[in-house]
Amino acid sequence: MTKINIHDMLTSYDKKNLTIATVCSHSSLQIFNGAKKEGFKTLGISVGEQKKIYEAFPLGKPDDFFIVEKYKDITKYAEELREKYVIVIPHGSFVEYLGPENFLTLNLPTFGNRKVLLWESDRDKERIWLEGAGLTMPQEIKDPKDIDKPVIVKYYGAKGGKGFFIAKTHDEFLKRVEKNKSYTIQEFVMGTRYYLHYFYSPIQDNAFPLSKGSLQLLSMDRRDETTIDEVQRLGSIQELEELGIHPTFVVTGNIPIVMRESLLPQVFDMGKAVVEKSLDLFGGVIGSFCLETVVTEDLTFKVFEISARIVAGTNPYISGSPYSELIQADLSTGRRISQEIKFAARKKLLEKILT
Ligand code: ATP
Q1: Sequence-ordered alpha helix ranges (H) in 55-169
Q2: DSSP string computed for 174-202
Q3: How far is CA 188 from the centre of its chain?
Q4: pLDDT per residue over 55-95, tens digit each?
Q5: Domains within the chain, CATH numbers bracketed
Q6: I need a labelling partner for 15 at 20 to 30 A (CA). Which of 92, 123, 228, 255 fits?
Q7: What is the pLDDT of residues 207-238, one digit of tens each?
Q8: Ligand 1 centroid vs 304 CA: distance in angstroms?
């Protein structure tokens, strides 16, 4: 990874005129809305043209657009963007469109710790991190011949669950698997899915205490996934599979969730452990992150994934969630990110939360 000198970049910045920028997609409406509430200028990076959709949502529209021919070109305009005192807020689509390598070497101050990408995008490293933190993950089945219960087969690099499939036997696996792709096989965990949205501040001590800084729980959601979540309207999965119709896991939306309160201590214990381990491994997961979990019938969590930045599941909560309302009225994850940047700029701590 090319060494990015955040200190040098920030030296030229007018800290009273920072601009919050992101790619116009994913959770950008929320990011711009939150930044505006905190008094920042906002810049929407868009391909080809100014997106008309933003005209429909004036409070989520960036003050200005920065039009590029293709997302990968953002790297070419880093200097121009630095002249606007831009701080980039990465989200899933931002990283995806730019490509991991360009993202890691992008010469722009970026919210969060970019090193985390290396740990979350590699399923083996992700397991070292999460299991090292004491979390329980779904069992991994190394040899397909050992499939003796329902499993989910995940292709590497598949986004939003695309192409994943369920198999209950080795034969079913052989029928469905695309042999030219790399995959991982996990136990299919039965239970209810909860996607937990945390915010870790290494520089503020006003929430759940950690060895350094503090942790908040801002919201949680459940993803709406087609076709698995609706398939039963047509018949049982078994019946449909016999007709060659297989359920898929493509995310189409997000549903708000409130969890039974007695599970909250476990939620904080998991969040704390994940942050503490990340501090040991790579200097910490800074800002928003999401644990993707299944709660089993004995009320324990199995964590199948971590997303280490703002997730689209926070979008139902632009004007606050049942949890963030207990921290501050009208607090979205997008707004919380801008608050952190504002606090850090005031206290001269930007280098602690930007990379
Ligand atoms: P993203 O990067 O968008 O989070 P992804 O492509 O990495 O998605 P996962 O989040 O790992 O995919 O899984 C996609 C969906 O598959 C989940 O939202 C969940 O519904 C289901 N799923 C994944 N792992 C398991 C599991 N072990 N047991 C049961 N369901 C699972």
Answers
A1: 78-82, 92-98, 100-105, 116-120, 123-132
A2: HHH--TTS-EEEEE---SEEEEEEEEEES
A3: 22
A4: 999 999 999 999 999 999 999 999 999 999 999 999 999 99
A5: 1-110 (3.40.50.20), 112-136+190-222+255-355 (3.30.470.20), 144-189+224-254 (no CATH)
A6: 92
A7: 999 999 999 999 999 999 999 999 889 888 88
A8: 7
Q: Where are the alpha helices (DSSP H) in the chain?
A: 6-11, 28-37, 78-82, 92-98, 100-105, 116-120, 123-132, 170-176, 237-242, 264-282, 333-346, 350-353
Residue 343 carries which side chain, given as an amino acid letter?
F
Lowest-confidence region among 86-100, 104-118, 154-168, 240-254: 154-168
Contact between 109 and 88 (Cβ < 8 Å): yes
* 17/20 Cα distance (integer angstroms): 10
* pLDDT attached to residue 117: 95
Q: At what angle do helices 264-282 and 123-132 cross, to 10 degrees?
A: 120
CA dihedral for 191, 197, 203, 207, sign (positive or negative): negative
Nearest alpha carbon, ligand 1 atom 19:
249
CA 243 to ligand 1 centroid distance, Å: 24
Measured from the CA of 225, which atom of ligand 1 is nearest? 20
Q: Name which residue sits closest to atom 20 of ligand 1, judged by CA.
A: 249
Supply the pLDDT for residue 4. 76
Cβ atoms of 11 and 5 closer than 8 Å: no
Given a cut of 70, is residue 341 above it in pLDDT? Answer: yes
pTM more than 0.90? yes
